[in-house]
Amino acid sequence: MDSEGSPPRTDLILVVDDEPDVRQVLSIGLRKQGFFCETAADATEAIARLAEKEFALMVSDIRMPRVTGLQLLQVVREDYPDLAVIIATASDDRETAVTAMRAGAYDYIVKPFNLEEIHFSIERALEKRRLALEVRAYQQSLERKVQERTWELQQKNEEMQRIILDVIASIAVTLEVRDEYTAHHSYRVADLSVRLAQQFGLQEPELEQVRLAALLHDIGKIGIRESVLHKEGKLTPEERKHIETHPLVAEQILRPLKHLQTIIPAIKHEHEAYDGSGYPDGLSGEIIPLEARIIAVADAYDALTSDRPYRLALPHQEAMEIMYEGAGRIWDPELVPLFERMMEGNQG
Known about the structure:
Structural class: alpha/beta
Helix content: 55-70%
Number of helices: 16
Radius of gyration: 23 Å
Strand content: 5-15%
CATH superfamily of the largest domain: Hypothetical protein af1432
Shape: globular
Number of domains: 2
Order of helices and strands: EHEHEHEHEHHHHHHHHHHHH
Largest sheet: 5 strands, parallel
Number of strands: 5
CATH architecture of the largest domain: Orthogonal Bundle
Strand order of the largest sheet: 2-1-3-4-5
């Protein structure tokens, strides 16, 4: 029974709760919002239903008899990795909910339910799932083409490079066009990174490696919750930890693409700090790949000189003052003045 003006989605949702009233209220509310929805009274029934149909998302109570929602989550993450999971918890059970999110849940909702908040959480979870499936399809499509046309690719290497670059650009654009503040950010970072690499003395094919890595430096953010990625206020320690996983997500996305193996270190280590306080591995100094240090400078400058939801773009001089303050601590102290000379030469 769908509400007028709200056509049903094709994604199927499973509601798991041992309380009949909760199942009924939640399933009816979701159906009125246009979702296809089925229910299960416990984890055993949920597992049986998951085996019968392809569900896109599961909303599960965390406290259930025999098999808890957390135990159910562990099972479905193993057997149904594409299933988005939202945990339902009592207001005094947030610590357990955070544990569930660390185990792979997308989000948690607090009882008593607010249907608008549930609707928003479900929409975001389904969108994240859709994008993740698209990225996988890109990966599989590229691998099939490589396997089927190896001999053609060997003779037409330049054409293959254009195809790969087009796919990379498409993924990057998909991430950025959804946020007016980061639109074309990767293209600008790529341009600045290549110019800085040239100033440092790099030549082809290293320049092309820098260009590709800079273009894809934010691809791992596809694995970051939008509520965290676009949060205007200060991040909590848990949110900071979550967002710092995006270099590792990028590594996982790019690892199957054989032709992009050489750019993975630059993307993975772009957020390392020169003094070793960065992430994900705490590398320091020249142990950080040169390409990563170059992209980090370009990325920071573009972020500082672009509008953000919480501030306007900074002028060039103010941005450079901030970067000089971080030279030797965050950024390579040799690259910051080189970047400034490059920019001032361009302005002149």
